[in-house]
## 1
Amino acid sequence: MEKATLLFAENGYETTTLRDVAKAVGVTRTALYHYVTSKEELLAMLVEQMSLNLAKALAELRAREDLTPEGKLRQLVDSLVRQRAESPHQFRVHDQTESALSEPLRTRHRQARRDVLAALSGVIEEGVARGEFKPLDPKVAAFSVLGMCNWVAWWYRPGADYDIDTVTRQISQSAIDMVIVADAPRTPADSARTALAVARSSLDALERLLPSEG
Amino acid sequence: MEKATLLFAENGYETTTLRDVAKAVGVTRTALYHYVTSKEELLAMLVEQMSLNLAKALAELRAREDLTPEGKLRQLVDSLVRQRAESPHQFRVHDQTESALSEPLRTRHRQARRDVLAALSGVIEEGVARGEFKPLDPKVAAFSVLGMCNWVAWWYRPGADYDIDTVTRQISQSAIDMVIVADAPRTPADSARTALAVARSSLDALERLLPSEG
């Protein structure tokens, strides 16, 4: 499956044949047919292995009652970054081959993507409601965190410049710094007041910076 | 070029022909040949238009002496997010078709990508050196910011749930919150722009906190 992913990623799903996969693995096409009967089935197995399992794990993490929103966000980001770092080709192939998936897998794959987003934005919403996170738009914030994590599949290469633990720690912390209120916890009522105060003092600063008239 | 980008994105660069492009534009293939002689040339024009111009603009922004690292980061993120939001197909097509580019364009495209990364990590490095940004690894931080911006090409659709100004403000502020030391001294040079941006994003936050009317 690793070889197939690599071939799909490098040469494109459309132009890759099962013969190419057999050759890369070092077996005959007949031997490969023993395990998978079509290229489509191989792709389906890859999707099953990655997207659906990850979505399930993140949804479970979101539902945990022993963690604060900050703790949940840290673990969600941790799982996402590690998954993208471990299977970069798989992730990018899915992005490029969604239209090649046939039903019902295509629908399930899309649902899995929505579940990942729902887990992230749900945790952010919870943090905002508790006054522990800034009053951000939860979905835009979730997409921002997601982009930061997903991008790992584009740039990180194992054994190159960085070890995965360092990368994961920095990205998790960055995600938290993006959303957290520095001196949390605050009551939700206080956040509107804070936003207003910050806006006002920014406008004051702006006024002072204007050239004086006349 | 928009039509070509859309076709490349939807059906894949390999399987799209100039005939398809002509049909989508509503002209004959002969008429299209008047402007471009091959599919490769069309792709080259797309790359030229997007990647190289953006890389140049960001490099210039990085070199400006009238802006603090915070001001530069805000404007870099602003440019990136707007570009990704305006040409999502273009961005994703480039990601998928780099191997289809022929030399010397392929080398130039890669260089442009490196230049974008260098502009971002250079600004972060400058902020760290001045003690205004947290002591992060500048490259990992740059990739994180880049992922956040690039991902806009995957999820943002004009005219849907969000307007681009709100999205851009939140993402710029998130990028800054990721890196900035809370009590950093600010130089007055670009703080008018900063004050305005902070005020606006505080007002956005305030709006979201209001109970919905009706």
Note: Residues 39-209 of chain B form a domain with the Tetracycline Repressor; domain 2 fold (CATH 1.10.357.10).
## 2
Amino acid sequence: MKLTRRSKAWLAAGAGLGMLALAGCGPAAAPTSAAPQAAGFPSQWLQYGSNQEHNTVFPGTGAASEVLQGTSWRFREHRGIPLNQPPRDESVLGKGPSGYFHASVKTTQDLGNAVGVTGVGGIIYVGEDRNRVYAINALTGKKLWEGMTINQNMAEPIVAGGLVIVDSGDTGFSYSNVMKFAKHAPIVRGMGFAGVWAFNAQTGKKVWSYDTKGEVMPDGVVLGNAYIFGNGDGHVYALNLKTGKPLWITAVAPGKGGFDSMSSANWWKNPATGQTLVYVGFSDPNFVYALDAATGKVVWKQTVPKVFSTGMGDNSPVVDPTAGIVLDDSVVSFNAANKTLNLDLYAMNAATGQILWQHKLGRGKAILAFKAGLIMVHHGVAYVGDPDNGTLQAYAVKTGAKLWETTLPKSKIAGKMVLTQDRGSPVYYKGVLYEAAGSDVFALNPKTGAVLSSYPVGGRFGMINPVIVGGTMYLANSWGWSLAIPLHDIYPKG
Amino acid sequence: MKLTRRSKAWLAAGAGLGMLALAGCGPAAAPTSAAPQAAGFPSQWLQYGSNQEHNTVFPGTGAASEVLQGTSWRFREHRGIPLNQPPRDESVLGKGPSGYFHASVKTTQDLGNAVGVTGVGGIIYVGEDRNRVYAINALTGKKLWEGMTINQNMAEPIVAGGLVIVDSGDTGFSYSNVMKFAKHAPIVRGMGFAGVWAFNAQTGKKVWSYDTKGEVMPDGVVLGNAYIFGNGDGHVYALNLKTGKPLWITAVAPGKGGFDSMSSANWWKNPATGQTLVYVGFSDPNFVYALDAATGKVVWKQTVPKVFSTGMGDNSPVVDPTAGIVLDDSVVSFNAANKTLNLDLYAMNAATGQILWQHKLGRGKAILAFKAGLIMVHHGVAYVGDPDNGTLQAYAVKTGAKLWETTLPKSKIAGKMVLTQDRGSPVYYKGVLYEAAGSDVFALNPKTGAVLSSYPVGGRFGMINPVIVGGTMYLANSWGWSLAIPLHDIYPKG
């Protein structure tokens, strides 16, 4: 553990680490690997981004939050590459129009972390592309246990009922599916074995697994006793959380296929009817679906004109539960001649799927792989990045009114300044917006979009939402690292 | 080590194991893991199938061969599944028209061994799909060391110059390549990181690695100081065996792509010119290429009409060095209406590529994945299986005259009798033909094709050539096992 000036000051003032860590819990004792510091952490993590709004912040309370403000560590995962080095095989794989694309994509999809971490009860959970899942002491950065699934783990681990749920699958297509696609026949995404694995959250012992034909890259959502997710074989599955046995399975587009690449499930309880809906996107054909959480019946589906490629199956709907609105953004209007595209942000009535408003986020050069931005909603404002043009933008959820647009400073990746591809969602914490994109963490004014500070980390961030617990930010990146950074280091005035 | 009746008789007659193992090498000592029994094994393994003819037999000498005749072990690799169980995820992945196809294919390509083993100096080397490579004591079945590459290892380990060369890559295509294929643009095979890895043959320590853009699934050939192989990005590479640095790199179809899936390289030295040629097949476009081994220059290329799908990139040319003939077989005349296809066997002039003769091996129901049969040549006869119709056939190399055709007995896979898909090449040993196909090892009369015996192993065999050393057969299979079976158990009269 590296101590910041602030926590050093606390220690100098006579406050022992052990006392702070276990304040109010009986006799003071230094935290150990077996009993990590839990203060400030949530007790469960039920969906991608931890809640419907994707705002993954946990202020903590009193002394605990101050101790955690001093937490700084870097955990190198299997095959993790140094943060100041280029992506793996850069010279072999070649470069895209904007610099490091090909190698960065492969490094994200085949070596490091596609998304971020989960923090529950003082433990950071993270899955990565080399089939491993880690439980890390949030205070020390020491590994508590390591598990292994059958394929790459591209989702945030879900933590519920004493289990860590890890989704496993890969982005590839078999040659027979390549040929089917050319004939417009339904295809399945995922080359290797795939499925969902459940581990005991404390010991890492495997409890159950459920195998699927297509990849399980996106996150599901825990609703009651069910874990509900879409995947690469055109289905939405609801599994019994305790046993892994299916409660229901729905083919979203019978006879037509469809695949969910990275669209993590979200939910909303309709106050008028009491019905809980699950939202998930699929590609080929492109639709956002709303399913009844209890039965799996499709309640509505929606699409937008000129949606392109893996548009809707790649991105995760966000929900503003108060407004009763679901938001998503997808690639539309791809121009094959000059390789540019537009990202459209659209709002849907959560109960009916009706499009309420739709906005272009601007045209940019088509980047490789995931081309959309994850959305975070806070106090009636939707914050969304556009990785194709390097911007972060803010819109009023109800009206669609544009509040601001900021072009993020360029990122330094392996010594070169490149467009900051902002794929993840920001978080809102104590009046500051934090966003991890490119190789940096940025602090912004949420009212104006003004960049307040930038903190270089190295490597590259994928579709990440930073996790803030009691003054520490927890992250994972494409180079194969899990990280704890004192929030104070990122933005001293925060 | 399990002793057969024959080796027990030897021991009863007073012949100590240690004495036999080190006969003529000084004081007697029992073989240990650190110093495995080397008698009878070759000192290097320079290409797929160990030689141009793919006849992987090593009679051994005197007492050593008798001791090894008693060797029986099963080595379970990472995630290996019990031999009497179905392939992984059978119920999830669904069945093809002939039974176990979908799950068998995925188990072959993502869990177990696509091909067989290599035996050098008393050590069995094997690579598998979970990225691991093992060195196993040939006498005891105990692991000497375990290495790991960056992706699946589908080729036989090559052993030369004190190094074990392991090719690494996977069968998948990225979504961008899926879209390119639909537009008839060049594509690259292989989703994950790929390349060639060299380990110290004794210690397993990594010596060098060389990364490539596309998969390296097939084997290369060692010629002099060069390791020469084709791969998924449309190139043939010659690497310096000692350093892994490229000597030359040839794009076989510039601007058109091409990918080598499982076509392992072969070679022939033209006695008239002294030039050494390397033969390797590519798909999309489909050609067998002959390259000058010293410079990488393409000397000739050849194709056959109506070749289908991954035809030429999947199969490995065999060479009859005396006749100066290269043989290969590829899928032709696919009938999309009834899903049948034909496998054509063809002979080419090794110097010019001219087609000398071409034979249909018969029409059969299209099976999934690898649809051809590897060829073995012995004393002017080519032996080849047709996995689509379950036959093994023999042809005169020079004239193309058909000598016989045998339908192999059905195989019992997980309790059900299914067509025996004969993908691998047989070996000729002391007047008997041995073939591993389906879940069995068969002994046949090489003159008539009559089946003499069948020995059930379980699991499923891929594109395997059994390796026979001094009376023991060494194998690997799709379920993730390396095996030693006394030849006497397979065919007691052999």
Note: Residues 65 and 470 of chain A are 4 Å apart (CA to CA).
